[in-house]
Amino acid sequence: MGLWAPTGETLPVGLRERLGGRSVTTAVHATGAPARIEDYAEAAGAIAAVGQNWGAKVAVGVSAIVEGRRWGVMTLTSRRSPLPADTEERLADTEERLADFTELIAVAIACPSRSSWPRTMSSPRG
User: Fold this and answer.
1) Integer Cα distance of 45 and 20 in angstroms
2) How far apart are CA 50 and CA 55, in angstroms?
3) What is the pLDDT of residues 5-17, one digit of tens each?
4) Which residues lie below 8 Å from residue 105, measured CB to CB, with a gap of 6+?
5) What one-character DSSP code corresponds to residue 121?
6) Could you read off the pLDDT of 57-82 as tens digits, one per residue?
7) CA 103 to the chain's CA centroid
8) 64 phi/psi in degrees, rounded to 5
9) What domains does the chain contain, in order, with CATH numbers?
10) pLDDT-based confidence at 121, cuts 50/70/90?
């Protein structure tokens, strides 16, 4: 597990929790499909407890696939609830955009040497 927050908060490096209960991570792991929880107060389990202790209100997640195998789950959470009125419109494709970003991370994981990156990823100009 990992955490980035503009306040500088972190989770201990190497923190691991068991899957189970009702959390975005558990749902994505079980189905392979994107998942969203609109009210994190209803989440349950060890992973959900970490999010609740951090103050998570809503969460969305997607599978991180590296070289064709599920490597993990990428999640985004927010402490804001209810979210601003235009949030659903702005985030309608959050799962798709998060999956696209996660695919880029997967390339970096699979190809740790920059020289082995696909040409289109070797520089911002392609």
Assistant:
1) 6
2) 9
3) 677 777 776 778 8
4) 64, 74
5) G
6) 888 888 888 777 888 888 888 887 66
7) 12
8) -100, 110
9) 24-121 (3.30.450.40)
10) very low
